[in-house]
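Appendix C reproduces, verbatim, an entry submitted by the partner laboratory led by Prof. M.T., so that reviewers can inspect both the input and the predicted structure.
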Amino acid sequence: MYPYSGEGLNIELERYGIHVCDIKPPYVNTPLLDSPEEIFSIKKMGVNLQPRTIAETIWKASHRNKLHWHVGATHMLAFFFWLLPFARRFIVKKLTMPGK
């Protein structure tokens, strides 16, 4: 999760009256995640967001001038990454890699 992913494109397209933003949900409960394979980060974080929540966020984003939209657990992650930037790699590894 990179905090400035949409800023460059937003700056480039601003002169044409186009606003670009990024919406950052963790896993969303869709058929795409119904695969039989075990994914460690899904087991660790869970799948707590419904498609409707993401659709509502997209609707809000299309009517506001906000650049970054954190949904679900990404609020907390963004705060930790801001507070402890040196720990970003460690936090991401803990969420995505199985422990030994």
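The chain has five helices and two strands. Additional entries are available on request from the coordinating office.
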